[in-house]
Amino acid sequence: MSHHYQSILASIRTEVLPLQHDGAVANYIPELMTVPPERFGMHLRTVDGHDFAVGDSDEPFSIQSISKVFALALVVSLVGEKIFKRVGVEPSGSSFNSLVQLEYERGIPRNPLINAGAMVVCDVLIGQLKRPKQELLAFVRQLAQNKRIGFNERVAASEKEFGFRNIALANFLKSFGNIQHDVSDVLDLYFHMCSIEMSCRDLATAFLLFANHGTRPGSTDAVLTKSQTKRLNAVMQTCGFYDEAGEFSFTVGLPGKSGVGGGIVALHPHRYAVATWSPRLNAKGNSVMGMKALELLTTKLGSSIF
Ligand code: GLU
Predict the structure, then answer these.
(1) Ligand 1 centre from 259 Cα, in Å?
(2) How far apart (Å, rounded) are the C-alpha atoms in residues 268 and 210?
(3) Where do the domains of the chain lie?
(4) Is 96 helix (H, G, I), strand (E, B) or coil?
(5) What are residue 257's DSSP bridge partners?
(6) Distance between CA 14 and CA 286 in Å, rounded?
(7) What pLDDT, on a 0 to 100 scale, did the predictor assign at position 3?
(8) What pLDDT score does 2 carry?
């Protein structure tokens, strides 16, 4: 099967290229607008270590919300599933930074992949780790096997400067008692993790953890148990694409996560992880070319998880 992947990726690139002017780069974080909008990259890595790539797949970009999966994986590896007492596992069905929903639900975020949920995860990490930013970064570097991965301080600062809504969300959580540490520390970790830069290659490599029962291929040390991995994949499947999670399940049929930097990562358990990057987003905040590329991938391979 493997040898088909490269030609499939090449034909996907040709087919998505006409979409390169559709959608708009996220502008509510001004620093994200400095990226050339017509980029497209895709990297697929199999659990047995074969790499297939097209386009700008080695170019690092802002992973934004994709970082929420790494934070969640780290928190679950540290405290287990009791994190789900402070954050739910239901799709939000509303925007990723909704204040209204948090008010209705008395400060318990719907899931760990919306902003409020990720902030609760950050709060727990601050309680568990001596140097949370550095340790989260080390975790990501280890999963991606790339020591050069880092924060983009300009993006983190831009998010802080214009993060009025996220600052409101964090204060709101604090008012409900669902943030235990300083709001400013929680936001600092949150903005930094969103500013991490990785390439499609890095992301596909890192997400193999979730395609391989919670153990990095080639390693014997489990990061997550099989059961924890299954739960994380379930959360990605139902909550990984803002209020377009149903659409992604419907058209692609894989667990995954998107970010407003234009990245999407998805995985087929036991087979592969795949990442796409293209900065122009649709109205729901997901990469136009990335969504189409992944739909074409599972269609051409004739297999999704369903
Ligand atoms: N840093 C972004 C925010 O908090 C992440 C959003 C995203 O990628 O969904 O708004």
Answers:
(1) 7
(2) 9
(3) 2-301
(4) coil
(5) 265
(6) 20
(7) 60
(8) 55
Single-letter amino acid code for the residue at 287: S
Residue 285 CA to residue 306 CA, distance in Å, equals 25
CA of 97 to the centre of ligand 1 (A): 8
- pLDDT tens digits for 251-275? 999 999 999 999 999 999 999 999 9
pLDDT at 93: 79
- Do residues 230 and 255 touch, judged by C-beta distance below 8 A? no
User: Would residue 65 show up in a list of annotated catalytic residues for this protein?
Assistant: yes
Weakly modelled stretches of the chain, pLDDT under 50: none
Point out the catalytic residue in the list 16, 223, 242, 265: 242
> Would residue 68 show up in a list of annotated catalytic residues for this protein?
yes
CA 227 to ligand 1 center in whole angstroms? 28
* Global pTM exceeds 0.90: yes
**82 is a catalytic site residue:** no
Which atom of ligand 1 approaches the CA of 194 most closely?
A: 1
* Per annotation, catalytic residue among 67, 68, 133, 257: 68
Contacts of 128 (CB under 8 A, 6+ apart): 75, 78, 79
Count CB-CB contacts under 10 A for residue 64: 24
Phi, psi of 268 (to 5 degrees): -115, 110
Counts of helices then strands in the chain (DSSP H, E): 12, 8
Q: Are 72 and 223 in contact (CB under 8 A)?
A: no
190 flagged as catalytic: yes
Is the domain defined by 2-301 classed in CATH 3.40.710.10?
A: yes
- The reported pLDDT for the residue numbered 29 is 86
